[in-house]
Batch of 2 targets.
Target 1
Amino acid sequence: MHIPRDVSLMQWFPGLRNRLEDLAIAQVMAEILLRLGASGGHAAEEYRLLLGALEQLEKGAAPPDLLARWMAELAEVLGYAPGFEFCAQCGASLASGIADIWPALGGGVCAACLGTRRPAYTPSFLQEWMHFRAQRQPSNDPQCWQRIEHFYLHYLKVHTGSLDTLHSWNWLSQTRNVLSLCHPNEPQENICETNNPSWK
């Protein structure tokens, strides 16, 4: 067993200190990986994802949905990516549309399986999520990508059991709220557009 005796700083990102929201996003990503640890054997892939995102943030040219895309890619690396082609309950095709998302089952469900239950996610959010998954294009609507961020955070919590009470997430939310007060003409953060996603 090799025990590290020396460490050195190979790369750092001083530019993040100039943009408070970017710094808060970087802290969220770092805390998520620290909470997850390396027990799943995906440390190298997780590191590459984090490094790529930090480099984009450092340049100040990151797309507005960077955090949402990063969490989606992390879910794929961990093997938890939500499915949207077949019903997670019965396996039927979802070509005609998703009636709801059940995180505990790993994806979307059909109308037959949803039955008379009230869906946890609204039709407008399901449409946003499907577009995000299919296109992976940056969105200029902060309400859209922040809803998707909240979805993936909840989804990762369900599947990892390691992401409750993220201090950096609270800090990011507070930072965005303060920045929205500094720029009152810009759209403010809107909490995830769901009815009650936690019961799944």
Target 2
Amino acid sequence: MNSVLLVVRDRVKLRLRTALAAATALFCACGAGAYSVPGPSNDARAGDVTNDSLALRASAATVNERFYDFKVEIQATNRLDRPLKLMVPGGCPVILQVLTAAPPAGRVVWDSQYTAPCALSLVQVTINPGETKTFARGVARADILGDSLPAARYFVRGLLAIQPAAITVNAGEIMISK
């Protein structure tokens, strides 16, 4: 019985060390520099985020897909001269937030990470130098409005859920009607 517990404990320690090493490598690969976010402008869609290794651009759109009415896409471009490896949740690499107005004035009135379940298994995504990968998240109108939110124009932002920390990108405005 004790030998089984020792084996399990050793495997847990190995997984923790592996996760810590991956998080450290990702932090180093993504650059330690601060992310630059443009200041307020007349264009609420201006939400590009860049750092030493990534350039991110998000967009929100009304779509007519089988299960989704709205979609947020985040395009991630590798700015390095070597491949960039990102760890993202396999089921939902993008977290979608709906705000009453553009940040910083708007408050979050709906957040997909608390209302729409996703598979949490991590997937490694490789982005080659100069390459752009698109990460997307769709959502149904009824999920956002529910019983409490009125039909209105809302501001949307996406969070690319890379590990160890998500990066927030403004995605623009959408009109949500019942």
